[in-house]
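User: ok so my PI wants both of these folded by tonight, can you help

Assistant: No problem, let's get them done. Here's the first:
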Amino acid sequence: MAGGFDVRDRVIWVTGSSRGIGRGVAEHLVGAGASVVVHGRDAERVGEVAGALGDAAFPLAADLRDEEAIAAGIEAIAARFGRLDGLVANVGGAAHGPLATMEVERFRRQLDLNLTGAFVAARAAHPQLAAARGAVVLISATAATNPTPEFGAYGAAKAAVEHLARSLAAEWGPDVRVNAVSPGLVRTEGSLRSVFRGSEELAARAGRTTAVGRVGEPSDIAYACQYLLSDAAAYVSGAVLVVDGGPTEGPTQRILRALED
């Protein structure tokens, strides 16, 4: 029976879905019965992922910085499916560095990658989403509300993403619902390599700092996206859903622990 958390027969574009969290979201949505537009800049990799997902996946290789390419991609989606019901704007990335010495251009690239890319995708998809009375999910990060030294540019960009979600929700409702998902640390091929230095033991150790006792998996983010794309979230718009495993201490606990040390 349709309704609830059901996304069967819906067409959903997941940006940056050739790897990492985006790929996990795409795989999950296909498994839930949706048709998914697999997107990335590397045409070969996009094709491989879409091929692995079968007939329910449609490959779209385009750079979000190229508005003409994105417009052509939206036309291709319309030609293939005749509709677009949802968008998961997942493209993003973190470049660390101290703000005191960070080049302005490096800071600007973080805004373009995380914020402008989300806006470009959402704006391009808006006409089809409005026609379908669809939904948008922007992928943020807990860095948006938790200052992390040397990741200030990334955190600022993700904070702007959350504001963008609320602004789009206010402007585009009631035709289009817009929300954000804010992941904590998620275990992907990239994070295992760059954050955990290839060590499963370090990943497990990091997981013990969360209330649920583990780091996240792409499927955890995918379930949150499915909820926000589905009719179960019909009365949810302009919200930020934090999916980070839960904190085990707050500012007071950190201060007390420092005093004990």
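One down. Here's the second:
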Amino acid sequence: MKMKACLSIVLLLAVSAAAKSPQASSSQSDNVMDLVKQARKANSDGKQDEAIALYRQAEQISPSLFEAHLGAGVVLDLKAQYDEARREFAKAVEAAPPEAKAQALKSMAISYAFTRQPNESAKYEQQAFEPQMAKPDYYAAGETADELARIYLESNDPANALKWYRTGYETGLKEPNISQARKDLWEFRWENAQARVAARQGKAGDAQKHVAAAKAILDRGTNPDQMRFYPYLTGYVAWATGDYKTAISELQKADQRDPFNLLMEAESYEKTNESNQAMDLYHRIMTFNTHNPPNAFARPPAQQKVVGK
């Protein structure tokens, strides 16, 4: 009996040691990241319930896994379960490695954009902005400032939007040895921003002046990839100032993979009493499963139209 007991103890210790071995840890890590990979695909395919179940499995195996908490937060936002999403993002912020901290903070900020709470978004965007300034990474900091500005603008706070757009513009230009093309990029973004802010404030004349200035910058040819944003800008100004026929015409030329473009087009169709076209676009918006500002602004109103919540 004593011999059997000793053998049992030895076996238990061996199993325990094997579980703690590098090979076992590596296998467990591979398994949990495979669950994360499957969850991401399920979410991309629009299968949010399946995705969250997979993320939960990953969290059970590795409770402090950054990727699982971040992914779960994304899916819960898309499901309009915002409080639960923010609990996941808080865990992601805590677990994030240094190189992913800004991503986690900005994801939390975007969560609050879904519910149009820009002052809450600002708490997290600024936590990303300050280390970028300290590094310094002026380009990334400028983009973070612009992201916060857009959240303010689409949350009907044009004054704070303009403040942060100006911060983004001035920050971006601080880049050492900045090229002319990069200067033109920030100039274009600044004119684009001022046009949209003016349109939101009902200043159609001012908006058009900034639209013209933005087009003049694009015509320099230094940033050809930015031309695709011009119909977005003209469509936005028309939509925000109540020129819905022009908005539809311009937005049809804009990026149809951007859910916010589709939202403005849908709302313009509603204003022109073309409800079938509007509803088709609301349904298309619901096929986007990204977690970014355009979808944060577009998905909740589309969800209200399509499923009533």
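The two ends are 66 Å apart (CA to CA). Confidence is low (pLDDT under 50) at residues 1-19. Good luck tonight!
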